[in-house]
Design brief:
The complex is a heterotrimer of chains A (488), B (102) and C (491).
Chain A (H helix, E strand, L loop, with lengths): L4 E14 L36 E2 H13 L3 E2 L2 E2 L2 E4 L9 E4 L6 E9 L5 E13 L3 E3 L5 E5 L6 E7 L6 H18 L11 E13 L2 E4 L3 E4 L4 H22 L9 E6 L4 E6 L10 E2 L6 E2 L2 H8 L6 H12 L3 H8 L2 H12 L4 H19 L10 H12 L5 H13 L4 H7 L8 H14 L1 H9 L4 H15 L6 H12 L1
Parallel strand pairs in A: 14-15
Antiparallel strand pairs in A: 1-11, 1-12, 3-7, 4-18, 5-6, 5-17, 7-8, 8-11, 9-10, 12-13, 12-14, 15-16
Chain B lengths: L6 H10 L6 H18 L23 E2 L9 H5 L5 E2 L2 E5 L9
Antiparallel strand pairs in B: 2-3
Chain C lengths: L1 H6 L2 H9 L5 H19 L2 E4 L1 H16 L11 E5 L26 H8 L3 E6 L33 H8 L5 E6 L5 H7 L2 E4 L19 E6 L2 H11 L32 E4 L1 H4 L4 H16 L3 E4 L8 H16 L18 H12 L2 H14 L4 H25 L2 E5 L15 H6 L5 H6 L3 E8 L5 E7 L5 H14 L11
Parallel strand pairs in C: 2-3, 2-4, 7-8, 7-9
Antiparallel strand pairs in C: 1-3, 4-6, 5-6, 5-10, 9-11, 10-11
The chains are: A alpha+beta (488), B alpha+beta (102), C alpha/beta (491).
The structure holds magnesium ion and zinc ion.
The site of magnesium ion has 3 residues of chain A, from loops.
Chain lengths: 488, 102, 491
């Protein structure tokens, strides 16, 4: 029955990112998650009679920075508008936002696909606005209003409907999170509501050579990447099923809103038709427009850094790391920067990468901080990498040394000596021990020399004997060379 | 004479304005707003094709504040004028819809 | 003696107090005696702060006696319109919806008055949320014109002008969105100045039309207006729309107040006069004669778009008001209806109960002008017309130092005369509204009386931020005439 059906998934995102300024967008109240209810509120964000907003400069600059990172055209002239709607968490009953002249438009973001390739998702616009407070409905047969969040600067980012699966939506979300964290403009913690994603999903279904579009569904209440991905996949299936069952297609403006129920792992209808919203946007007469001249723009541009996805790709091509390793190293900016510093100080990229990914991140995680906050310098790290590569210490001794390095501020060399982890590499000294071992194990020597099946195993046995005799301090590479020479 | 605005429109505008109007107010406003709008439409005789809208008269742009924390009011002062409160919150009848527009 | 004291202007009083010849406590007591005697008839005040005022007055007297330095208005009893927030008393905007609202902060102008050591004695009545031209729209009380109790004081700052005219304070602050200082000043025979938009901080002024509102002084003399400007003018970091020192430096408005403007060029707009009542026209031509005698050159200018000002103004002001007044919803402060059915009824019923008819009418009008489908035709069109009107002034000021016009087409009208026809009431703002649309300063100075002994005001308009010049031009007229020395008698 469904064999002649094919479909294309169309997803666009509306994203709200809370900026991590010290204070709110239009007043000096501190931004603080989890503070006593209604304690971070002043006459301005309480919307009292007579108050006036004054723009937070950081909030504007952070927004421009994100606009640049999203490859947007940043407006030289932007202004603020009022968006009117009544809701108890919005004390003025209008939100200061941007309507027809957003501060940035027409950009794109590259997202990594599972294939290892990247996909370009177009950004329609990114504008700055103030957040509302919070209505709570858990107290009984009434609702409570907390205005601590009211006036928090929010960057609203709208994408074109360029994504075609839950996985792509998630990839964008992760990429954006990594980006705003790199730029230092948001903590981007989804659980704390620092990033809020609202996907708009519909399908173009081809049936019997004819195209049908399903009605657009906007999904709300998503507080994890997993929920975001699953809600999209769920909607795709639901809309497909609904089309097959009822043949229902999009009519003029019949967009609906559905909420994600994380317990049931499904979307639930919230509102069929948007109540005829009439936001009555008009320029906010209390605020002045912003003009961004070239000098200021350049100054903001100088705060841009290499974006994570670019870094990740470069690590693969320049340092020959695996995509997986490159992804781990670039997941957060301080780790990536630590890695690059250590490489710059002379460490081999692959060796430094292994030290970081196999031991460093684990130690940092245990300490509850980033790798850069451990008492490790990039110089010490590169020194350790060189010692391993030079055979001064074994790879496993290297891990031990690294662990010690985070506990003391001693150099790798010092720790290696203190712990007696320096390998014996003196060929003269080792030759004597090798000869002794060869003399004590004539059978093995014979096996090696026979070149038969047992040859490899026997050579390994002899190597082990030498290492044992030196209490593990012999450099295996040097010993192998001597053995080969003697037995050939 | 056709009115500029009819009672249905007045009721719609009243809802947008969150004003609970009586029937007589609706009737009165319909007449009065119609007369005012009729008067206002004299502007249509002006050609404003090439005129820029002037939202305000100030010759200035770029007014900013440094991102420096200032003391908030504190919960008690914030709630001092509240018609109804519940502990540290403003209290309102149960909100059943999600009408947030952020 | 107390009567003489009340006849002083601010400048005289502050000099007497500073010299220790008059005690601030005496002046304050005299004012309260006057209030107790006459305000039941005039109705200028919504609230007064006798104890606090006397304590402040005593503090100033003690400071002066101890030889300590004191502020610019030390010991002078002044009043503020009840749409400026104060941490003392309520801030009601003459609205039931804010009847019990206590602001947790002071408006910047209030802070400035306090810093200047003024004695704030009370808050004055007004049209609810400053919406009106007669103070009849107050939701809380009635104010009459001290010259004739059957007439309105004008509005919306009718409480402030009645308080000054009725000798219930030495000076007051008002606010002017479309003429709300100048028109009642004219009706009450006092001086009223609307400064340039951006000259005085609006922080703490309860907003009506945010792009039009401006606070200004109501005084007995032009010199006092200059003195008050020295206290209240200037940049405020809390108001993005207040202009900074770089763009428009504040000057000492008193310094040159008695220095006439040389080669003064005054413009008149011939098409205006026809619209005003005969006594108003006559007073205006007399005023022109006064300036001529002072050597001024009189030129004619035309204001081709003046006739559209009321239309544009009522769209812009109400659109902004519809948004500014959305916050009065019974959720966070202000009146809340009893037993709302749901949270939406908290809004619809609280607002219906709390707002008076004129306020509702303007909210409706403004909401309509901004609503989808009507925005371009009404709101946007008005902003364009506003630009044309500003252009008219720009061209006019290329030819003159100032423009003089009537303040209002009539003198104070009878209470109830225009309350049934809102449009008729709006049309009486014809001469004052353009200054708000163009953001320029304007002043009303007493220039005569009609046959009923009702005062008439002369309006002088000057380019943006030219308050210094404007005050000096007004002072030139005041020096030559004695209209401002006439006193209303309430008995
Ligand atoms: Mg938004
Ligand atoms: Zn605040």
């Amino acid at each position: 029955m469904t064999s002649d059906i094919s479909y294309k998934v169309i997803v666009g995102l509306e994203i709200h990112v809370q900026l991590c300024t010290q204070t709110k967008m239009f007043c000096g109240c501190a931004l603080q998650f989890g503070a006593q209810p209604n304690s971070r509120v002043c006459p301005v964000c309480l919307g009292m009679p007579g108050v006036l907003p004054v723009m937070n400069k950081h909030a504007y600059e952070y927004s421009v920075l994100v606009g640049l990172a999203l490859n947007c055209k940043v407006a030289g002239f932007t202004k603020w508008d009022r968006k009117s709607y009544y809701y108890p968490d919005l004390p003025k009953n209008y939100q200061i936002s941007q309507y027809d002249l957003p501060l940035s438009e027409n950009g794109f973001i590259e997202i990594p696909l599972e294939s290892g390739e990247t996909k370009r998702i177009r950004i329609t616009r990114a504008h700055l606005e103030e957040d509302a407070g919070k209505n709570l409905h858990t107290a009984g047969n009434f609702s409570q209003v907390d205005l601590n969040r009211t006036g928090t600067p929010l960057l609203e980012i709208v994408t074109e409907p360029d994504m075609s699966s839950g996985a792509e939506v998630k990839a964008l979300a992760v990429e954006l999170q990594r980006m705003v964290r790199y730029l230092g403009v948001s903590e981007a913690d989804m659980q704390k509501g620092h990033m809020r994603f609202e996907p708009n999903i519909n399908l173009v279904i081809t049936k019997g050579g004819k195209e049908h579009k399903t009605a657009i569904v906007e999904v709300k209440n998503l507080n994890s990447f997993r929920a975001l991905e699953r809600s999209v996949d769920y909607e795709v299936q639901r809309q497909l099923d609904e089309f097959i069952d009822s043949g229902k297609v999009m009519e003029m403006g019949n967009k609906s809103t559905r909420g994600w129920d994380d317990d049931k792992q499904m979307t639930v209808l919230q509102r069929v038709k948007e109540e005829a919203h009439d936001y009555r946007y008009f320029p906010d007469p209390d605020l002045l427009p912003v003009e961004l001249d070239d000098a200021w723009l350049e100054q903001i541009k100088s705060q841009l850094c290499e974006l994570p996805i670019k870094k990740q790709i470069r690590y693969v091509s320049e340092y020959k790391l695996s995509d997986y390793d490159a992804g781990v190293l670039t997941a957060d900016r301080s780790t990536a920067e630590f890695f690059e510093e250590a490489v710059k100080a002379g460490g081999d990229p692959k060796r430094v990468c292994n030290l970081i990914t196999q031991v460093g991140l684990k130690l940092a995680n245990e300490a509850g901080c980033g790798i850069a906050e451990l008492s490790l310098t990039a110089e010490n790290m590169s020194e350790l990498a060189k010692m391993i590569d030079d055979g001064q210490v074994s790879a496993s001794a290297g891990n031990t040394i690294l662990e010690q390095m985070t506990k003391t501020d001693k150099a790798a060399q010092v720790i290696a000596e203190e712990l007696n982890l320096i390998q014996k590499s003196d060929a003269g000294e080792l030759e004597g021990i090798v000869e002794k071992v060869l003399a004590e194990n004539p059978k093995a020597v014979e096996d090696v020399k026979s070149g038969g099946k047992k040859s490899k195993k026997a050579q390994g046995f002899l190597l082990g004997q030498v290492i044992q005799k030196t209490k593990g301090q012999a450099n295996p590479k040097v010993v192998s060379e001597i053995l080969s020479k003697k037995l050939s | 004479m056709s009115e500029k605005i009819d009672q249905a429109q007045v009721k719609k505008v009243a809802m947008l304005s969150r004003l609970d109007l009586t029937d007589s107010e609706v009737a009165e406003f319909t007449t009065q707003l119609s007369a005012i709008l009729e008067y206002v439409e004299k502007m249509n005789t002006l050609d404003t094709e090439n005129v820029q809208p002037l939202a305000h008269c100030l010759p200035i742009t770029n007014c900013f504040r440094d991102d420096v924390v200032k003391e908030s009011l504190g919960t008690e002062k914030v709630l001092a004028n509240a018609p109804q409160r519940d502990e540290e919150f403003f209290k309102v009848p149960k909100i059943l819809d999600d009408n947030s527009g952020a | 003696m107390p009567n003489d004291l009340l006849n002083m202007d601010c400048k005289q009083l502050r000099e007497q107090i500073a010299a220790g010849k008059v005690k601030s406590v005496e002046a304050t007591q005299a004012v309260f005696k006057s209030i107790e005697k006459n305000d039941s008839k005039i109705g200028a005040y919504i609230s007064t702060f006798k104890e606090q005022a006397l304590a402040k007055a005593k503090e100033i007297d003690d400071k002066i006696a101890a030889g300590e330095s004191v502020g610019f208005l030390a010991g002078v009893p002044v009043a503020v319109k009840d749409n400026m927030c104060t941490t003392f008393g309520a801030t009601t905007c003459a609205s039931k919806i804010l009847e019990n609202f206590h602001a947790p902060y002071n408006a910047t102008v209030v802070e400035k008055l306090l810093a200047a050591d003024a004695v704030i004695i009370g808050k004055t009545n007004m049209d609810e949320f400053a919406m009106g031209s007669s103070t009849e729209n107050s939701g809380l009380k009635k104010t009459v014109n001290p010259w004739d109790a059957s007439r309105v004081p004008g509005g919306s700052s009718g409480g402030s002008t009645a308080a000054v005219a009725g000798r219930l304070c030495f000076a007051a602050l008002g606010s002017d969105t479309g003429g709300s200082i100048r028109q009642p000043a004219s009706f009450c025979g006092v001086v009223g100045l609307k400064p340039t938009y951006g000259r005085v901080s609006r922080y703490g002024l309860v907003a009506f039309g945010s792009s039009l509102d401006q606070i200004g002084p109501v005084t007995h003399t032009v010199t006092d207006a200059a003195l008050m400007m020295n206290v209240i003018a200037g940049h405020d970091v809390a108001d993005s729309t207040s202009v900074d020192e770089q763009n428009a430096p504040v000057c000492d408005y008193l310094e040159n107040i008695d220095k006439p403007i040389e080669k003064l060029k005054i413009a008149v707009v011939p098409e205006f006069n026809a619209g005003a009542d005969e006594p108003v026209q006559k007073a205006l031509s007399d005023a022109i004669e006064v300036y001529k005698k002072l050597g001024a050159e009189i030129v004619e200018v035309h204001m081709p778009h003046w006739d559209y000002a009321i239309a544009a103004y009522y769209m812009i002001a109400t659109a902004e008001a519809s948004s500014n007044l959305a916050r009065y919803d019974g959720v966070h402060y202000g009146h809340r209806t009893d037993n709302p059915g749901d949270y939406v009824e908290v809004y619809t019923k609280s607002r219906a109960e709390g707002f008076g008819k004129e306020v509702k009418r303007r909210i409706m009008l403004g909401t309509y002008a901004l609503s989808s489908g009507y925005y371009d035709a009404y709101y946007l069109k008005s902003l364009k017309v506003r630009n044309l009107i500003r252009g008219d002034f720009t061209s006019a000021f290329e030819k003159c130092d100032c423009v003089i016009t009537p303040v209002a087409p009539t003198t104070a009208f009878k209470a109830g005369e225009k309350t049934d026809d809102p449009l008729k009431m709006y049309l009486s703002d014809i001469y004052t509204i353009s200054a708000n649309l163009a953001g320029i300063p304007g002043i009303s100075v007493p220039c005569g009386f009609d046959e009923n002994n009702l005062p008439i005001g002369l309006q002088i308009l000057a380019p943006a931020f030219a308050e210094d010049k404007l005050l000096r031009i007004a002072r030139m007229f005041e020096k030559q005439t004695d209209w401002h020395t006439n006193r209303a008698t309430i008995d």
